[in-house]
Amino acid sequence: MAVKHIDAFGHQLAEALNTYSADYIEAHLEESQSSYITYRGRELESIGRTTAIGGNVRALVKGGWGFVSFNNLNELKDKVELAVKQAQFVGNAESKLAAVEPVVDTVPAKIDKNPVRLRRMPLAEKKQLLDEYNALIWHTPKLQTSIISYGDSHKKAIFLSSLGSYIEQERTDITLRLTAVATEGNEVQQIGLSIGSRGDFEVISNLHQQVEQMSRHAVELLSAPQVKGGEYTVVLDPVLAGVFVHEAFGHLSEADFVYENDRLRQIMTLGKKFGSSQLNIVDSAATPGLRGSYKYDDEGVPATKTYLIREGRLVGRLHSRETAAKMNEEPTGNARAINYRYPPIVRMTNTYVEPGSASFEDIIGDIKKGIYAKNWYGGTTSMEMFTFSAGEAYMIRNGKLAEALRPVVLTGNVFATLNNIDAIGNDLEMNQGGGCGKGRQAPLPVSNGSPHIRIRHCLIGGK
After folding, report:
1. Phi-psi bin for 398: left (phi > 0), alpha (psi -120 to 50), beta?
2. Cα–Cα 20 to 30 A to 73, which of 198, 224, 229, 340?
């Protein structure tokens, strides 16, 4: 990567920001290197490496934004001038941004484990590991198809602003998603496995046993019974509970969504009770080593730990500088863009339920008839309503795990569901696989997690 290249252009762009008149101007320069490998069924579908270099300028004039992205780093003053002119066409009100202190800092990828090794690793070495996983999947009878999708990236980004900020940040990211689909007659079942890390290839290097188990379980589900639909006491594992918190509640906590929706503003009133006193939900980019972590967001605001729900009450939401000013609240460092082609918008980072004190045995011990739901492979949300498909499910009978079920579908109102959480485990786990989508920007690196949680009166779809 031509690291010195964007450094030189960064100082040139810093001078250009002070040339033009606007209420605020910021710019990003970015260069990245990534590789990808995809299998569909037994066959390798695609493999390759890509590099990219580019940047953007965003200008604010009288409340209106101008945004210009580019791949050619020449004539940067012209890009700044164009962004300012665009903003002048749009703006006709007062510009509002929460105040922040300018920052000058360099943040290397030191939290990643040996990122240089990953960047130098031959594609053939990565492919060899995935060949092993694909062979394990296809040792299993009754499989119809499978999908393996691997990706990694290393990015260096420079942020500059008319406030005087100059921040260099580097990060490395790895994701792996495997899916096995089994069929018999008209029956189809699938199981998936998602893993991710901040540059540690070893995290995905020793999954042979898990891949075998995943494939066998997809076949076993073909003969598993389907639960009768209705209300049950349901226990969610950390993966499914984390996805629920992210998708069903986390997006409702993003302040741009709240600010633009009158009905949601009435629902998401700070201080409102949404659960028992043991329920705490957090979003934190300040936690080291997670895929959603960073030191500064894409507006140069330091990362924070933000309580969304504390002791059962709504106490916070996620902000950019603009939404914080509009709602008269503090910025939280949650303005993020997937790359230089897009402006930053309000996004989650690492969203999770804080652990409680109950053991797994305590949580299921007094359930006469319930369901244990694990993992996930899909879902939809619409305002406060949600529908999620669990990846695995088991009956709970008289306080013990019993027979495996076909995957179940959970549906309901997120606020009613939060109020029905009556036990929170002591076993917090963070799910590092996958990514988040919003505003055509996907997949953004995030993580989510939870301890095991127990939900009373949860609606389960079935036969």
Report:
1. left
2. 198
pTM: 0.94
Q: Are 284 and 249 in contact (CB under 8 A)?
A: no
| pLDDT tens for each residue of 316-352 | 999 999 999 999 999 999 999 999 999 999 999 999 9
> Can you tell me the distance from the alpha carbon of 160 to that of 79, in angstroms, rounded to the nearest whole number?
14
Question: Is the distance from CB of 398 to CB of 407 less than 8 angstroms?
Answer: no
Domain shared by 160 and 245, yes or no: no
What is the spatial distance between Cα 444 and Cα 336, in angstroms, rounded to a whole number?
9
In this structure, what token pair is assigned to residue 51? 């590099």
Q: Which DSSP symbol is given to 280? A: -
Give the count of domains, the chain: 2
- Residue 371 near residue 395 (C-beta atoms within 8 A): yes
Domain boundary at 158, 190, 221, which? Answer: 221
Residue 67, domain CATH: 3.30.2290.10
Give the end of a domain, one of 201, 221, 241. 221
Amino acid at 171: R
